[in-house]
Every structure is written in C-alpha cells, then in structure tokens.
Amino acid sequence: xxRTKTVFKVICLGLLTVSLITPSHDALAQRRKKKxxxxxxxxxxxxxxxxxxxxxxYESLVKGMNAxxxxxxxxxxxxxxxYEIPKAELGKDMLWVTRLVSAPENFGGGFVGxxxxxxxxxxxxxxxxxxxxxxxxxxxxxxxxxxxxYKSVMNNNFAPIIGSFKxxxxxxxxxxxxxxxxxxxxxxxxxxxxxxxxxxxxxQVRRLDAEKSYTESVKSFPQNIEVRQVMTYDAGRPxxxxxxxxxTMQVAQSMIKxxxxxxxxxxxxxxxxxxxxxxxxxxSDKLKGDQVRFLKRWRLEPKDPAAYxxxxxxxxxxxxxxxxxxxxxxxxRKWFKLGIEDWQVAFEAAGFKNAIIAKDPPSxxxxxxxxxxxxxxxxxxxxxxxxxxxxxxxxxxxxxGEIIESDIIWYHNHLRSYRNWYLIQTGAANPRARTLNTPxxxxxxxxxxxxxxxxxxxxxxxxxxxxxxxYPVESLRNPEFAxxxxxxxxxxxxxxxxxxxxxxxxxxxxIRKIGPYDKYVINWxxxxxxxxxxxxxEKATLDQWILDKADDRMFRFGSSNGSNPEAQTEDLGxxxxxxxxxxxxxxxxxxxxxxxxxxxxxxxxxxxxxxxNEVIGQWRRFVGHVITNVGGITEDFKSTDQExxxxxxxxEAQQVSAMNWMHKYAFAKPDWLLDEDLLxxxxxxxxxxxxxxxxxxxxxxxxxxxxxxxxxEAEAFKGRNTYTIYQxxxxxxxxxxxxxxxGTAINTYRRNLQRAxxxxxxxxxxxxxxxxxxxxxDMSQSDIRPVVKSELKTxxxxxxxxxxxxxxxxxxxxxxxxxxxxxxILDPK
Length: 829
Hints:
This protein is of the alpha+beta class. The chain has a domain at 67-258. Helices cover 38% and strands 18% of the residues. The chain has 26 helices and 25 strands. Strands 1, 2, 3, 4, 5, 6, 8, 9, 10, 11, 12 and 13 form a twelve-stranded antiparallel sheet that branches. Strands 16, 17, 18, 19, 20 and 21 form a six-stranded mixed sheet that branches. α20 (687-702) packs parallel to α24. The longest helix has 22 residues, at 606-627.
C-alpha cells in the first residue's frame, strides 16, 4: 500500500511540475495576438513568405539528353540515365537477365566467363504515390486465380521491391512517368549484380569502387532494353592481378518484355531429354503442392493448320532465325549456316519446313538499326579469345518455357580443341588428320557439328550421354554405317569423332552428325497436337510416342552420373571396354608419329608437347570409361506402366573384363608413352612423376569408397551372383603385385603404384567418411574396412614371403619399406 501511494505522489508531482512550467492556453493566445498585431501595425514591413519553387518542365528535365525510342524511351547524357516508362507497360511481366560480358582471368574457375548468365528473374514496374517501384516476381508457386487458395499463394510469395524511383515528370499527354535510374545501375545493386555472394566471399570483396565504375551504354529496342556496365570492386583476394586489389568486370543487363499472350506449355517427361522449367501448382487435385515441369522450346505454329493436320509439311508462322555475327570470318560462314540449318530435317519430322533459317547480318544500308543486342534477333556470336569452348544459351519465359531469344557463342580457340582431338583420336586410321594444319573441309565439318550441337541446346535439348551406347562397337568400324549414322544417334551426345575405326577398315567419315534421336526428340517436343487445348490433353499422345520407341535403344535418353557405363562423356559404342581397347590401340600408334605430324622446320616443340599432354588426357578418358563398369549401375527411365526395373547392376562378366583391361592398359608400364627421343626434345625430366600421378589417379578412382559401397549393396541383393568388393580388392592386389610370385624385378613405375595401393588402403583404414556426388559412405561402419584390413594382412604375408627372392637392391628396399608401412597401418604405434 505504501508503494502505491508513493507512485501516485510521483505522478501528481509530475503533473504539477508540467502545469508550472507550461504556459496556459490563454497566455499563449495573448502572445500570438500581440505578435500578429505588431507585424500588421508596422507599415514598412511586410510578411515575408518564401517564393514558391518553380517546378521544372518536362522539356527542361530532358533538354540536351540523347533520346532512344524503344520499349521505354531512354534519355542519357554524361552518365545520367532516365527512363520514360509508359503507363501501358506498368504491371507487365519483363524478363531481366544479367550476363557477364567480360570477366577477369580465373574469375569462375573455367565454368563462368564471357557470356555466362548470372541472374534471370521476372520483374514488373508499378506506380505508387509518386514513385515507380521495380518488383521481382516469382512463378515458383502458382495457383488458378479463380481458386480460393490463390490468395494464400499470393500472400505467401510477396514480391520484394528491388528498386524505387521518384517520378520527376510526365510528358504533356501524361502517358508515361519519367524516372532517374542512374544510381540503380552505377550503385552496388545486389538484385542485379554479377558479383554474387559466392564470389564476394571467395575474393574478399569489400565494396564497389564507384569512382572506377560506370554505365557504358544504354540502348532501347522495341522489345528490350540493354544496359552495359563496367563495375570495379575493391577486393582482398582478386582472382588475378592481385597487386591491384581490384576486380573489374563488364556486365550486360537485359530487360525483355514477355509475351502478353503466353504460349501453352508442354509437360516434360524424364524419358525424353529436354531443358525444363517448372513450378509448384497448388491448384492440383493431388493431395500436395504438385511439382510441374514443362519444356523450354520456341513457339512454332503452322501457317496452314488444316494442311498441317493432314500431315503436310507446313512453314511456321514465325520461323527460328539465326543471324551470323558480322565478326565471323568469311571462310567459316558456310559451315556455321550449315550447322544451323542441319536441324531443318529434324523439324520436318515434326511437320515443319523451313522452321530454322541461317542469315548473314544485314549491312548498314540494308538495315541501319539492326543490332545483335536487339532481342528480336538471335545470333551466333564469334568471340576472338583463347577459350576452347562454345555455348548455346537461350532466354525463356519462366511462365511457359517459351524461348524468347538465343545467342550461340563460338570462341575462336575451340578450333584448336578439334584439331587436336582429330589428330589424336583418328590419326591412326585417318591420313587427313595427321597434321596440325587440318584440311579446311574437315575443320569446317567439325565446326558445323559444334554449331549444330549448340543450336540443339538453344532449341531446348540437353546432353544425351546415353545415346552413343546404342551403336554396336563393331558397326563403327563399318564405312557404310559410319557414313549414314555418324558416331551416335544424336548430335547432343559428347561423342566427337570416331576413335574406334582401325587402320584398314576403310572408314572415311569420322565426324558426328544429326541422327535418328534428334528427329525423334524434335517431333516429340515441337509437333502441334491437334485439338489439345491444355497441357494435360497432350499427355496421352506424348506417352504413346515414347512407348512406340521404348524397345529401340537409339531413342533412349540419359545423363552422365559417374556410375552408369551406358551414359558417359566422350565415349562411343555399346561396350566401353571393347571401345576403349580400340581407342588405346589407336593412340598407341599415334605417339610414335608425333614428331613427324606436329613439328615444323624452324619452330620449337611447343605444339608437340601440347599434343603429347592431350594424348595422356585421352588415355585418362579411356581408363575412366572402363572403370565405370566396376560397381556400375545402368539407368533406364521408365514410367510405372512399363515393365522392368530402372536401375540394374552391370553383369559380373563385364566387370571382370574391365578389371583385366585395367591391368593391361592402365597399370602396366606405359612404354608407348616413354620414347626417350621424343621426351628429351620436350623436357629435361618429369616423365616418371607424370606417369606416377596419372596411374595413381586411376587407382584411387578405382578404389573409391562409393564404388566399394555399390558392390556391397549389389552383393546384399544378389549374393555371390555378382562381382563383389572382395573380388575387386583381390583382383587389384594380384594385378599390381604380380611380380611377387615370379620374383621379377619391380620397375620404378610399378613401385610407385604398389606404394600408392598401400597408401589408398591406409586412407580407407583411417578416414571415417568419404563423400562423392552428395553420397556419403561411412567406412568405419561398412564392410569396407574389414575387407581392407584383410587385404593388408594378405599382402603383408606375400611381401614377407617374397623379399628373400629379390637380389636387386631397388626391389628389395621397396619391399622392406612396404613391409614396414603395412605393419604401421595394422598396428599403429
């Protein structure tokens, strides 16, 4: 009670204090009155009100600025950029794409560079209370706008505002709003920055250096606006030029208006290879938010629907047109055009003629406004740099998958890749490949194939690494088969040239081409299905097209996953062990001829060294193709109404064959690579360590914990009716230590491998967890460690028994060392 009274007293005192120091209402009124009277009664003084600030006219706001008409009217001068945004374009969906134009050396580790797409998002411009807001719109979660759940979807996917701009004026007819967007492009706007959080962390980026950053150009076209930036960042650990402490990059910001009449999507199926887009549909009748995937594809509609429905070939309303870059060398233009239009035959399978067309760029006289940056024009860009690659990106409407535009990128130095592969892989059987000056016709055919491959990507097709496994290996030695079918059923496989054909086979076509799968997949994705008014209505027809081809291996699709020998990169044929045998025999014939085929009078041996190193790379590929059979699991996508399993263990005989191959071609001393005359023209030393590193990588890849775990699981299901982990380790040990039984001297290369084998077993004994491709293996909890321990004990007995049979010092010292190493692993001190 005392505390309550005290509080009350404090409150009363507070009120009393306020009343004592605050003038009464009447007193204030008197003061105001007196002040007003004084002002009014002074005839020489007038009330001073500040002059009203005169608003700038619209004309004065844009006076002297350069104007560019297009999707928005753009004004720019001295680094200042203003957009005149038509009211008619407010609330419309725009696709915003952020791409790297130029990046510093080593910026993306070889996977991110010139032309790389960094961000793709949908935006809308909206007006609110004197401001224009730029919002990022997501289509990840959708619902029918007539469903009650639509409101919940909207409330739980509220759009972030990535830009806010004060309206500074309007034209006389009030049809648009003028806003200053300068800071949006010159500042460090994270929503459109090519410097993502991963790069910021990796390169220790501290801030954007505004003094060294600027907007290079702004161009407005009828359907898009292109902004080119140069952005410089202060960085603690730049990827190159570290002494500068800076990273400078050139970035393209593209804003593209999306169709106001969206295309009908086509539902995807994992049995047919397509790039896809998707969302979660909360209006689905399924008892969940339904994940829906649909194809990325161009909008092709027949000019004459009735004739199309009768099965006649019909031209599309709007064909796919690719323009060549004006910078494309004249001598290559023919091949680029052929590569683009090679797809016409595939579109004919879908009922369209002249569906895809290649054109030269128009001259200034023909079209002074033509620009490759105008989204109305898709182009094949020719980039003069040292990158050995080509890419086929496209920009698509995330609402439907409709491809809006595409720019194929060919990097000049990719010619070098194909020249080298052609020589190395086909030189034994192909006299035309035995030179660094590849015949123009051959290099043109290879460029044609690359462009066709990249166009395939831009049409919506991913790599199909399974396709090549449908061709019998021996068929690729047949000249007639190779001429008609190339090297794989699709240009979308990484099957470059025919390395299987042997000298004397008579094969003359070694280069890939459009194949049966390409015609099938284009028909599946692009043929118009009459009377289908929604995606679901197409599904029965699409399913039947798949089932019609289900028993033909040429029409299967699969991606490389590291454990499926039927879907590998750079491989050929239906038996990777046999194919790699032919491939090895060919490159073993090439190496002795390198000095003749790769040297020029008056030049040094740089080209020879380059080709030699790439031969070793090809050896690695062949070994990789074979290793995948061990512990391999094939994958064959099926729907629930199809018979058979999706995943199957590679037959035991095939795995045994692969292990035998490894001991012959991977682990034996590679005398074919050790020509002393050749090596001493390229280097003072290094061969032993190079071979050691290469063969050790083979061994470690073979003895991978995830491979061992797959063998354990196969045995768990099949018992001993499969190749087992015990066999793999025993076969590896027996092959690597075959000298022990005979007492044959152990050469340097074998000693290296034997030590590596013991070290690999030690790794498996001492490391608890191994992870590969997101799959984790706990070695201490699996059968791996007991098997490894058993192998170590067996090897220990064999080494102890064999030491006495060796008189040469190198072998004996080596075995003594191994004995000690094994003892330390089994009984660590």
